[in-house]
Amino acid sequence: MTAAVALAEGSGAARPDRRPFEPGSRMWDDVGLLTFSLTAGSAFLLQTMEPTIAAVVDEHSTFRTDPMGRALRSIASVMMWVYGGDEALAEADRLRAMHATLNTTDAAGVKHKALASAPWAWVLHTGVFAFTEGNKYFSREKLTDADKEAYYQETVQLMRNFSVAPKEIPASYAEWEPWFWDQVENHLTTTNVAYDYLKVIRKIAPPKQIPAPLHPVWRAVTTPVGRLQYFFTVGTTPASIREKLGLEWTANDERALRLLGWAIGRTVPKLPERVRYFPIAYEARRLERDRARLRTMINLRPI
What is the pLDDT of residue 66? Predict the structure, then answer.
């Protein structure tokens, strides 16, 4: 399934360069939206069921002890991938350097490396699923096959920015889709990390900065948020994964998710840009508009 990209880049043709994303791309318009977070949970859940990722996360991640900090750092990093300009490539390099030493040996004695090619690629592959699944539930404009292909090719560029091995990249969305579902069915496995993650998002632990007397207030505020995040995560996770993990999802749950999604898909586009985009995304988009206005004035200057 992945031979096409590997052959194309390993032949006499020049390998495409790493390059940051620019205005006009699908990622530029969509990744920074607040609705991104609604399927980020299912993407991370799929990552925690990949054996190597699960082993490394189990030993090295702070998602159990600092869930809020971990989530905020992850979202900020993703925003940098798309909206950071030249710093996007530096962020990719920073993450590779950080993961270079995150190796571990699991209980069965199997050694795992965070930068092993397949697990490293799987993190970005789950983003394709999250994007298409999020569109299905939380957008009023449904994706066409051409839309999916265009977004996938941008993900291919993102993978090149992260130095993903070409052998791990299917050449097109049409090839990616059956490959992805084969991974879901035959490679992902039930892990304690997956169960721990579901517990963490359902009951959000207070940050260390919040004093103990304020913990009841924290729980009162975050309990509804945690329940909703759990609901969105389970609902946008593949049915076969829910079955592997023994997660309940009823027909009423599905109807409720679709109703909520319908409301979100029609409300978010009406919000001010400052509200509907994460801060880094909003500032990057605003800066590009400022640059465009400056260019217009430069072009109109008297000579």
Answer: 87
